[in-house]
Each structure stands twice: as C-alpha cells, then as structure tokens.
Amino acid sequence: MLTIGILGTAKNTGKTTVLNSVLKCLSDKRIAITSIGFDGEDLDHVTGLPKPKVIVDEGTLVVTSQEAANHSTAKLELLENLPLETPMGRISLYRVKELGTVVLIGPNSSDDLLQVIKKLEDNELEFLIVDGAINRMVPFQHVDYVIIATGAARTTNLDELVSEARLMVKAFLLPRVDGEERMTLSGVVSIEKLKLYVDKPLLIESPIHLILADDYKKLEGLLERMNIAVKRKPKLLCVTVNPCYPQRRVEGYQLSKIDITQAVQALRKELDLTCIDVNKEENILCEVLMNCR
Amino acid sequence: MKILLVPLDPVHDVAVKMLNREFSQRGHQTILLPPDMKMEEIIEICQKEMPDYIMVSRTLGYNAAEILGRFIDLLDAVGLRKKCKVVVGGKAITKEIATELGYDAGFGEKTRWEEVVAYVEGKEVLTDMQKVRKVKKDITEGYTYKVKDSAFSDLLEKISDQIVEWVEDKTSPGIERAKIKERILKGEDLWDEYLKLCDDLVRSYYREKALPKHVRVITEQEIKKLSELLQRTSYAPKVLRHTGQKPLIFVQYGTGCPFMDAMHIRISEAWGADGVLHFDPSWGARCEGLLEGLLAHEEDGSIITLENLKLIKSALNDSTLWCVRAHRGVNTPEIVLLAHEAGADLTKINIVYGSLNGGSDPERLTVDGVYSIRLAAKFNMPFDLPTNEELGGVPAPKAFAGMMVVAYLSVKLGAKPILKPLFCYSPDAIINKYMEDNYIDYNVGKILALRDIIDAPIWPGEPIGFMTHTEDRVQSAMTTALHAALGKSLELDAITVSSTDEAYARGAITTSARIDSLRAIADTYRFFGDAKIEPTKKAFEYAKMIKDGIFKTLKKVAERGDFVASLYDGLFGTKEEGANPGRAGRGTVRKC
Predict the structure, then answer these.
(1) What is the pLDDT of residues B427-470, one digit of tens each?
(2) Among B224, B257, B443, B570, which has the highest number of CB atoms less than 10 A from its own CB?
(3) CB–CB contact B65 A46 (8 Å)
(4) DSSP secondary structure string, A149-164?
C-alpha cells in the first residue's frame, strides 16, 4: 500500500479540491482515505465560507470518527473501532457501501497516523490518501508521497509564494541517506541550530523538520551552502497552486481569486517538478499519480 | 498533574492566569508562561519540563489558526505530541477547530472552569442538562386575593353580586355548545345538536368538508415528520433569571401553523422561556362554533381545535406553562373546556376587555364569561385578565376597574385570576405625558396601585414594552429587556415578551427574533441581579391617581346598578376613549 499525503501551507490552499481530484484519478484502485484534521464540513470553521465536499465511491475504506460518519451522506459500514481519540470522538474504520459525501476526522499526530497505516496494511489496498489539516505537516513524515498544496490563501504576494514553495521543494529534494557518518540533529532544526554546523555534513529526521522553521529566506540561503541529508522523507509528487483565497471584508470573509499563472510558470521554470493550477489541470495530476509505485 | 499554561498570544493571558490560580489551588503543579514568547522557546520549555498537560490559550483571528497548527507540528516534530495532552482554549475555539488543529481537546467561549478542571482530573462534569432542573410553577400560589381597602371591596361586592344575579337565568349558544361538547368528549354523539348552534362556516366544514379561507388540513406525512423532528431536537434546560424565582417569562405563539408553533415553542424553551401563550385567529372569536382536526391557517393565529392543541402539547416540555386564551369571543366557554382537555395550565378571560376591545357583545360575553370562569374554577385552571383596551386608548384606571370587577367576581366563583396590566407606551399615557421623562414611573404606578387594592398575582403583558418597539431589532430587544428588568425589580410574577420582529414581521415572525429578546433579557438579568430600578416620586403620584381613577369608575358602575349597561354606556371607557362595545353574538342571550 502506498500512502499519499496532501500537505497544505495554510487554510484554504485547496487541499480538499486536490483530494477529490486524487480520488477521481485513482477511482479504479483499491483505496482508503482519512485526514489528520477535520475535512468535508459544509462551512469553514474560521471563515464561514462554503467548503468543497469530499466524495467517496463504493468500496473505498474511510477512517473517521463515528460522529463524522453520521454526518456523511455516503452509506458507511463499520468495520472496526480503532484505539485512537480526537476531540470529536473515537476513530473507526468504515467501508463505503454507497457513493456519497464523507466527513473526515482522522489520526491527528504522527504516531496515530503510523498506527492507522499499520492497521490498513492487512487490507490489500493500493493507496491510502491522507488529507492534511490547516498548515500542519509533521504527520506526513511517515507517508510515501506528498503533494504540496499552496496558493493565494497562504499569501497573495506571488514572489513570496514562489520563494516559499521553492524552499519547500528544495527541502524535499534533499538526499536520503542510510548509515553514513554524519552529524545528526534530531527534532526541529531551527536556523540558529543550523548556523552552528554550517561546515559539517548533517543528518536530520525529515525535510518537514527543516521547513518548520519560520524564516524561509534565511533557510534557503543555508540550504545552498550546506550539506544536509534526511533520514526519511516522502517523495514529492507535485505542487498545486490555488488561486482562490478568503478575503477579509467588513463583514466576515468573501471568496476571492487572483491570477496565479505567473507563479505557476515561475515555479515550473525554477523547479524540476510538476506544478499545476489546482482548479484547471486535473489531468496532469492523474498523470503524475500514475507514476507512483 | 504538571500543567504548562501557555498564552500563545502577544498580550492576552487572562484565561491562563485564572486557570493557573484554579489549578494551583487544587494542588496541581503549574508553570505559567508569559505572553509573547517565541514558539521555539516554548517547545524547549516543554521538552525540559515534560508536563502532563499543555494548555494553550489564544483568541482566534485569521492566521491564529496557522500559528496554533504550527505549535502542534513543532510538538510532534520533537516527539512530544503523544507524551502529553495538548489542549487549546479561546473565545472562538470549538471542538471542530481543535480537531482540525490537531489538539486533544478544545474549550470555547461558554466553558466553565470546572469543565477544564474535570477534563484534567478525569472526572465527570455535570452538564447543563443535569445541573438545571426546571419545574412547573403555580403563578397564583401564596396569594390570598384579599381586597385591602373596604371601600373597594364594598363596591366590588355590590357589582359582582349584581352580575351573578343577572346571569343566573340566562344562557347562550356559546354556553350550550360547551355543555354539548363536554358530553361529546365523553363519547356521546350529539353533533347534530352542536351544529345547530354554529355559524354556516362551521356547519359546512363538518357537513360538506368545506374549508374556511386560508385553512388546510395537515397531512399524515407532515405529522410524521414533525414527530421525528421533535424527537431529534433536545436541549439543556435554561433559566433566564440570574437570581431569584420571579418573574416567569412567557412568549406568545400563533403562527397559524401548529408545526411552526411547535418549533417556536421548542426554541423559546431552549433559550429559557418558562411559558407560552396560544393565540388563535381573530375570526375564531366572532364565528359561533369550533372546527376540529389538525388544521393549518395561512394567516396570523393558530386555529383552536382539540387536535391542534394536543399536537402542540406534545411539543411542550414538562416544565413549560401553557396558556390557551379564551377571553374575548363567542366560543369562550368551549375554549376553556378544550384547553383543559388538552392539558393547558392557564387560560385567559376578561369580560370587560373582550366586550370593549375584543369585538364581543357585552351582554353575551358577560353571560359566557361567568360560565367560563366557573368552568376554569372547576378545572382549577388559573387565568389572566388582559387589559389591552389600554392600547385602544382607554385610560389605565378604567381598564383596571374592569379587570378588578372580573377578578373579584372570579375569586367569588372560586377561580384564581391573574392581573395583567400592560407595560406599554399607551395612547392615554402619550396624550397626558405620563411617560415624557421615562418609561418607569407610570408602569410602576400601575403596579403599586393594583397592589394597594388586592393581594393577587400580577403578570404584565402582552407583550411588555408594547408601543416602544421599532423595526430595529437591537432596539426592540433592548426595550423588551429593560421592561423585563422593571418586572424583575418589582418582583412581578410573570411577564410576556415579544420577538423583536413581532410588530414588523410582515408575515410569520422568525425564531431568531425570538431569541433576540430572550437573549437580551438573560443579559439584563445578569446585569441587574438583585439590584433594583429606582422610580422617581412621580411613580407614587401616578399610583394614587390610578387608584383613585379605579375607585371612581367602580363607584359609577356600582351606582348604575347594572354591569352590562355600564359596558354599553361607556363607564369602563367611552367610545371617544377607544372603547367600542362589540357586536359578535348580539341578541343571542336567552332565558334558560
């Protein structure tokens, strides 16, 4: 079973839209889905704006809480209760009996996600799709592939958006090594820590441990100069960019859109990686997914 | 437990400070961090201290969610995520947000400290459902109905004796129908006799199944849906009063649709209403005879049938008081009967108001009214005496004199009346400038005058603040809440409150507008507690003026020696003042 995580850089960067596209692309595969947060709700918990629904086909396995299962229109058959708790109740494993929408509340930490992955391994599945939550990414240190979802909701400053995505991609492209003699840094790798070992070959836990640092500009500079490898990493499949974002208005939020063509082109040019507009280029996403094995 | 308290915020740390005090008093080891710390620093402290609980407090603005998400990510990245419980609290935090952010628990605006403490200590916390217990109250309990001034009781005795004597040999189609209906309810088939006493509209409904305009039969499917819906709605009981037991808070319903009524009732109960009043269509008061079956009315007022009433009863909470008004029309006795049959706690009868502003013929309503009062006494069903003729322009003293006569008569007949003066900006008060300075003194004057005359329960309505409301819902909620505060300050027994769109709804009122008023009252009661509203000395002058006015009216009526003639003659309010003896049922009273 291959696991694919959808990692967002902020709220509303199009994670659920990507998830739905992925589900469509893999519709002929045996798949399971879950989320490391809360997905498929009608309205955004913070902005109050409508959210895309998660639609699942018959036969798909779903890891979600009982309350969320009750709020799903898909007919779900309970297979097993899992020993994992969330603020919205215990998580269980279901099978979709009839197509419909599903609300996802899943394992919210790295350890819990690992448990779910282990659990699902006996089910002869081809894929497990894990939707991200807000800007959280650490649980994805344990998946095989990630898709980075970014967009105007992260920042409407396109230069910033591009340089941030570029840094993230660079981190994911760091080499994975095993058993090599290197200075090991565990936990979060802050810029201060990195600066102490500029000249040494370093081994860090995962690219995510690196990009948790909040000064991307300084980090990119250090990455250029340093020799860093990672213990484990998901393979980066592509970057998706969402032109829509919640714009603050006098009363609440409004869904607005900016032209991101320029950012997408810039990323394509600067990186050796697929970069797509989340709303337009589902076919490219499907092609990328065909390469997962 | 070792608890790390983190104000993940540039400035706000009140919540964690209070939790710090609470937890340390309970013997937990706490570490309180200052606001505005770098997240990496906080993570280092977490790694060093290894707390059992990390409690993060943050007001949720845009981007704050990302900050809270990053904090969880950092804990996860250093391997701490599953080694301690991580909790988030803040005004806008919900369970859903805590789930999305990846926390173990989230506590929002309405959280009580004991819930957080219970969570940490692994104890059960009492929910509102278990904590608040509402029980149905008898509004009339503890009142002696003693008239305090013999000059008043002499007059009232004389007037009520005359009424009882006058009605003795008289009956009406309304009374006869009530008698027949009582037997029909016991299983006798007397429909032919019943229909002989009804108007054509009612007759053709029963005989030809012809529905009156804007009336339709409710379908089986709709009934099934409602019962499903009622089963699904549950809520914790809520009390609007911050302190004390009075006043009980009533809302009125009468959307025309029993289903909408049921949901309005549920919502009112959920937001703290103690009682509800059923309002029927105005034509129901003028048309001889009542319909039957589950009927919806696509206009104001919900049709009174036993089936409709029973359906509404099925939606009522056990603790909710229920008043079905009967007061003003040609079906008054039968409605009292049906109200009792359906399980109502209260009804509404006032001969004087019904005759002068309710459209019923004074002679007819006097005969029917006395019979209805006797029925209410038999059923031990208290009733309120509205004085809404004040809204038509009748001065409060005259309206109150009428109320006093009916109240005294009722007590004499063994019934339990409840006085219902209006808290309103009445035409008479406007013309005479009684309320030019404030809305307090004249309303207080009314209550003091009534209390000076008789020891009886008082329930201002209907609704309080009448004529002070505008289309602006905030204003409307505000003025209702202030009148509710006055009711509490005067320790009145009950009040009736309107929705904020009641006067301007342009159709059915909305549930959110109901909540407006109830919500405003809750906060007003929180604000005042047991503190009182202090009237000026004018209130006492008004009280004396009103009491004198009541006395003068009673004196004239007693001297006239004929209650019904006094109604026609304008002693309880002249035509110029807005009192118009009604015509429904005129000429139908006959000797037994």
Answers:
(1) 999 999 999 999 999 999 999 999 999 999 999 988 999 999 99
(2) B443
(3) yes
(4) EEETTT-S-HHHHHHH
A233 touches chain B (CB under 8 A): no
| Average per-residue pLDDT for chain A | 90
pLDDT in tens, B185-213: 999 999 999 999 999 999 999 999 999 88
Average pLDDT over residues B80-88: 94
Mean pLDDT value across residues B152-180: 97
- Distance in angstroms (rounded) separating the CA atoms of residues A271 and A165: 10
CATH of B2-125, one of 3.40.30.10, 3.40.50.280, 3.90.180.10, 1.10.260.40: 3.40.50.280
Query: What is d(CA A293, CA A145) in angstroms, rounded to the nearest whole number?
Result: 10
φ and ψ at residue B199, rounded to 5 degrees: -75, 165
* Token output for B139: 């509004």
pLDDT, tens only, A118-130: 999 988 999 999 9
Q: Kindly identify which residue of chain B lies nearest to residue A10, measuring between CA atoms.
A: B66
Residue ranges, CATH 3.20.20.440, chain B: 150-569
A88 touches chain B (CB under 8 A): yes
Query: From the candidates B41, B54, B73, which should be mutated to test the interface with A, based on the most A CB atoms within 10 A?
Result: B73
Max CA distance (Å), chain B:
97
Which among A105, A110, A112 has CB closest to B99? A105
Looking at chain A, the whole-number percentage of residues with pLDDT higher than 70 is 100
Computed over every residue of chain B, the mean pLDDT equals 93
Interface residue A271 vs chain B (CB under 8 A): no
* Interacting residues of B418 by C-beta distance below 8 A, sequence separation 6+: B139, B140, B346, B382, B383, B384, B385, B456, B457, B458, B459, B493, B494
Average pLDDT over residues B567-572: 96
What distance in Å separates residue A49's CA from the closest CA in chain B? 13
Total Cβ atoms within 10 A of residue A128: 24
Domain covering A2-159+234-290: architecture: 3-Layer(aba) Sandwich (3.40)
- Helix, strand, coil in percent for chain A, rounding step 5: 30, 30, 35
pLDDT tens, residue by residue, A42-67: 777 777 788 889 999 999 999 999 99
- ipTM, two decimals, is 0.92
Which residues is A105 bridged to in the sheet? A38
User: How many interface pairs between A and B have CB atoms less than 8 angstroms apart?
Assistant: 99
Contact (CB<8Å) A108/B82: no
- Asked if the bond preceding B463 is cis, omega within 30° of 0, the reply is yes
Q: What percent of chain A has pLDDT over 90?
A: 58
Q: Name the token pair of B113.
A: 């400290």
The topology (CATH level 3) of B150-569 is TIM Barrel (3.20.20)
Residues of chain A contacting B103 with CB distance shorter than 8 Å? 87, 108
List phi, psi (to 5°) of B558. Answer: -65, -40
Contact A2, A117 (CB under 8 A): no
Q: What's the pLDDT band for B327 if we cut at 50, 70, 90?
A: confident
- B30 pLDDT more than 90: yes
Measured CA to CA in angstroms, residue B318 lies from A174, B224, B244, B335, B583 at distances of: 68, 21, 21, 22, 39
CB B91 within 8 A of CB B106: no
Spatial separation of the C-alpha atoms in residues B182 and B174, rounded to whole Å = 12
pLDDT beyond 80 at B125: no
Q: How confident is the model at residue B128, as a pLDDT?
A: 63
Tokens of A35: 């989320």
The residue-averaged pLDDT of A230-249 equals: 91
Contact B76 A205 (CB under 8 A): no
Q: Which residues contact B578 (CB under 8 A, 6 or more apart)?
A: B357, B389, B392, B393, B394, B427
Return the beta strands (E) in B312-406 as ranges: 321-327, 346-349, 383-386
